[in-house]
Amino acid sequence: MNALRTLRGSAGALVESGGVLIATAKRVESLRSPVGSHSLVRRGAQVVVRRRSVDSGLGELLGEKPFSSGTGTGHHRSTCADYHTTIFYAEEGEDAIWRRRSRLPITVCGSDARGGLAAGTEISEDNMGNDKQIEAPYGAWRSPISSDVATGKMLRLGGAAIDDDGRVIWLEGRPSESGRSVLVREREGPGDGDGDGGERPPLSFSSAVEESSIAGEDLTPEGFDVRSRVHEYGGGAFTIWRDSILFTNGPDQSIYHQRISNKDDSGTGTSIARAITPAEEGQVLRYADGVVDERFNRIVCVREHHGRGGEPANEIVGVKLARDAGGGDGGIEQRTRREEEKEVEVLVSGDDFYMFPRISPDGKRLAWISWCHPNMPWDQTCLWVGDISQSGKIDKKICVAGKSEGLLEAPTEPSWSPSGELFFVSDRGSGWWNLYRWIDSPPSSSDGGGFVEAVLAMEAEFSRPAWIFGNRSYTFAPDWHSHPTIIAVYRQNGIANLGLIDVRRMRLTPVETGYTEIFSVQCGGAAGRVVMHAASGVQPESIVDVKIDYERRSATTKVIKSACDVDVAKVFEGYLSVPRVVEFPTTVYDDGEEEEEEAEGAVGKEGGVKGGSEERKWTAFALFYPPSNPDYVAPKGEKPPLLVRIHGGPTAAADTALRLSYQYFTSRGWAIADVNYGGSTGYGRAFRERLKGRLGIVDVEDCCRCAEYLVAQGMVDGNRLTIEGSSAGGYTTLAALTFRDTFSAGSSRYGIADLRILAEETHKFEARYLDGLIGPLSTYGHAYDDRSPINHVENLRRPLILFHGLEDAVVPPSQSRAIYTAVKEKGLPVALIEFEGERHGFRKAENLKKTLEYQLLFFARVLPGGIQLADDIEHFDIDNLHD
């Protein structure tokens, strides 16, 4: 019988689903509606109804009236229709529904069993019906991880802060609101609220993570979007100060001031936000990375000025606040341009870029990072310190790090300790981003600039590339004055860790948290609360409260806010593919000085560099996600299709954070390899600089070698290899399809087809990025042309799908249009999907969903032999494809 029968009885009952008999909870009274094939599962204290087929009856059942509980049972119902799952929390001691494939004996409790067995019958393997997994080809599996779940239900968590009351305020981007970013605050402090507020020991996450019940309240008023566009990538869009929020608003890029405690005029909802800088058409003035200077009652921040003609000007400015900005009832009015000229003062200028303006605890000094073209912030930067004079100007500037003769370094993340010492991260000497501190010298000293000493030397990375403002990889423990301790995030072999650094002993002690990716950590509030932004292979990005036992060097954690509103590890137990690190052999090319110019040229079809180059064997890394779905098994001897994913940047890294967009593929029978090719971060400067002068060579080689290695290991199907990437990863995708024959199809999101045009048209932040990755355009123009896929379409013989936002200011939409037109004219299957209102990186739920579904359907239609999808996905036009 394929329908789920009516279930009755207060003492328990038996339900039949697809021929499988399942014991059920004692006090469930009724379950009505003929529906499709399902399973009823017990997970801990949860009772789950899982959807196994598309059925309108079940949609009604889940969305409106899933169960009617008996009087006094105390069950809490949580309906998640979009997840095709309904969860019931059973009381301890109650009978509940057991896992369908359980081998434990189950006894029918009720007298009204309708499954054909009498009460008291023990359900065993003999009478349980067919309990075997369904055999189906890889890629054709049905999964409860829908495109709606993987895109629209996943928030985009940004920075977090701790206010004076000890409550956490975080930034969440909402795809369902067209990608709008909103500040949210805990309603109650840690340990309060409806939850137990208790601590958890460190988790391996083999068991599910229990979510905190602490709710959040929106602080950002309707119509506002907390987002900066400095450097286009933004970050550092808000600052919390006393009872105030100072934030950059996305649509106009003005700075707004808002009270945390005040409500709107009606006494409910969010408080009013008022601009303190003028809004100008075209977002001429943009702000980021602010810190409040209480001594002069101003916010010191980075400003990007687009109104002076030519390249935008970046500078550090001070913006005056109202006298009562930190307290009282507000009343800041928006200034005119003329008023702003009086209220905004340029403090530091002259270099091309600035980041991390940070004020010392006594308010007398300012530290900052700067750099100039053609460097990027991971190539070479300078750390400066200047005195804040009695008039508020910056005097007596000293370069603390970055200008030592013969020493290449990229200092980043300066931060003043509570006792006034300046700490920072640099890769000086060792090539690893480690912690250092600047020891200032007294005025009478002969070395008036002071000196720098290492806090800890490790082959580990204590920072990440500064693509956005606001990186925060370390913080100071609350008992700093008595026990100077730094709480730091560090990465080794692609995995993030939390550690405690004893500054006096220069010793690090790892702290187990159960998280394998930690984006930031900070300490704040009167009680010295520690919060981190973290994730793992089975836990999506979350804002996490961390209680550290500094004596035992251990920690307990509690999730404050997860990027997903349901407990993913529980709801999708068995469907989540946990990544493992794969190290594979690859090749690095060394060029002789005589052949250097020629070697910088074209890529050979077999991946070699033309010229007299010498090969050196090396290794690169990938995170491998095998297919995972407990309901299916593939036919004997079949291998899964592989999707090789190429991260953007390219100076960035693949990480272990749970992404349901990946699980969308793996739970349908795909394997994924997320490659950390030469040039990726997290492995030191030497690994990062493998790509120097070799863009389109090393990245392509490593991605092809990864796929070939997995085929040789018998892990994937060598005839069904696909590749996809975004931005720089989109370029590598196009280059791999053009210059190599490894992959059968590819997908590019806002990728680069013409390197020369990119160098001539892109925004200021990356205007000279290719100088390091290829060489200056004036000297190496032939290399730009030779490595541009658009110039070698005759070599491209694989189907291709492209996605691009029409407001992209980093990689213009013309890049995708050019390669689309060329591939279409060649007669290959190709599709171009363009999105109105999207920039560099899609934010709207409907566009994220369409990208995910279209990519899966495209691959299913163009791969050799095709894949019969279990999902009903809307078809779209693919040029030159005739099914």
From TrEMBL:
Limits of the Peptidase S9 prolyl oligopeptidase catalytic domain: 660-863
Cross-referenced Pfam families: PD40, Peptidase_S9
Superkingdom of the organism of origin: Eukaryota
Disordered, as annotated region: 179-220, 591-612
GO terms for MF: serine-type peptidase activity
UniProt feature, compositional bias: Acidic residues: 591-600
GO BP terms in the entry: proteolysis
InterPro entries recorded: 6-blade_b-propeller_TolB-like, AB_hydrolase_fold, Peptidase_S9_cat, WD40, Xaa-Pro_dipeptidyl-ppase/CocE
Protein name, as recorded: Peptidase S9 prolyl oligopeptidase catalytic domain-containing protein
Source organism per UniProt: Chara braunii
